[in-house]
């Protein structure tokens, strides 16, 4: 299945480039190839860290008790720039589901302070369990919900091709084939103060699941 990951072939400037191919199994190191420093918030326990998946090889297991964050800096700013965001992940069966953000720069308030930014999350709606949430600086928000994406515990490649005005196409690939897609209209997200992976810095909650790679490339 390795050949099915990374659908794109982008040659633009990468803002974020995370994978775990060069790390040892058992490592709890979380590293961006472009040099953005990530700090662990919470704990990974004994199970969290780099594992060897039989389908995709090395990936990072988040057990739900911790996530990584990096300060928001200019070269990670997403608003106003055309970009491609691609995440390869699996939300597993068994144990606590622990829905939440795979990555985010901002999120929906839902009892918290609204943080303008972008969030890729899973688990809010069973029939459309993959969601991009786009929190605007004007107090409005947009949801991107690819249809018919019930979780069947497989590796998902979610690719968001964004235009500079925030509009774009969210595509979900399974086994290398396009499975579902949805378009989102123009929107005015903010930058947030951080970028977190494996959980939500705005809600200070972890996500439980496996991450193969996360890449943000600016066109």
Question: If you had to describe this structure to a student in words, what would you say it looks like?
Answer:
The strands form three sheets. Strands 1, 3, 4, 6, 11, 12, 13 and 17 form an eight-stranded antiparallel β-sheet that branches. A seven-stranded antiparallel β-sheet has the order 2-5-14-7-8-9-10, with no helix packed on it. Strands 15-16 form a two-stranded antiparallel sheet. With 219 residues, it is mainly β. 0% of the residues lie in helices and 45% in strands. The protein contains no helices and 17 strands. Strand 11 and strand 12 form a beta hairpin. The radius of gyration is 16 Å and the shape is globular. It has one domain: Jelly Rolls (Sandwich).
Write out key terms for the chains shown.
single chain, about 220 residues, mainly beta, Jelly Rolls, seven-stranded antiparallel beta sheet
Could you provide a short overview of the structure?
This protein has 219 residues and is mainly beta. The chain has strands spanning 13-19, 39-42, 49-53, 57-63, 66-71, 83-90, 100-104, 117-122, 130-135, 141-144, 156-162, 168-174, 177-184, 194-197, 199-200, 205-206, 208-218.
The number of helices is 0
Query: How many domains comprise the coordinates?
Result: 1
CATH class equals Mainly Beta
Please report the distance between the alpha carbons of the first and last residues.
27 Å
Using the CA coordinates, give the radius of gyration. 16 Å
Query: Mind summarizing the main beta sheet?
Result: 8 strands, antiparallel
Beta strand count: 17
Question: Which secondary structure elements does this structure contain, and how are they paired or packed?
Answer:
Layout: E1 13-19, E2 39-42, E3 49-53, E4 57-63, E5 66-71, E6 83-90, E7 100-104, E8 117-122, E9 130-135, E10 141-144, E11 156-162, E12 168-174, E13 177-184, E14 194-197, E15 199-200, E16 205-206, E17 208-218
């Amino acid at each position: 299945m390795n050949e099915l990951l990374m659908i794109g072939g982008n040659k633009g400037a990468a803002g974020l480039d995370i994978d775990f191919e060069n790390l040892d199994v058992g490592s709890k190191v979380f590293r961006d190839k472009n040099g953005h420093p990530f700090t662990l918030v919470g704990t990974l326990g004994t199970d969290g860290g780099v594992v060897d998946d039989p389908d995709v090889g090395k990936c990072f297991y988040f057990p739900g008790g911790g996530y990584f964050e990096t300060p928001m800096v200019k070269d990670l700013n997403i608003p106003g720039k055309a970009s491609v965001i691609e995440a390869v992940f699996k939300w597993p069966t068994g144990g606590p589901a622990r829905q939440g953000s795979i990555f985010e720069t901002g999120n929906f308030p839902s009892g918290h302070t609204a943080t303008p930014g972008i969030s890729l999350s899973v688990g809010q709606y069973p029939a459309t369990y993959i969601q991009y949430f786009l929190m605007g600086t004007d107090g409005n928000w947009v949801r991107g919900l690819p249809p018919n994406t019930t979780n069947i515990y497989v590796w998902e490649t979610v690719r968001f091709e964004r235009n500079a005005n925030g509009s774009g196409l969210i595509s979900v690939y399974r086994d290398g084939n396009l499975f579902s897609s949805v378009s989102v209209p123009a929107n005015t997200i903010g930058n947030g103060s951080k970028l977190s992976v494996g959980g939500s810095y705005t809600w200070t909650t972890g996500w439980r699941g496996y991450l193969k790679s996360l890449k943000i490339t600016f066109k």
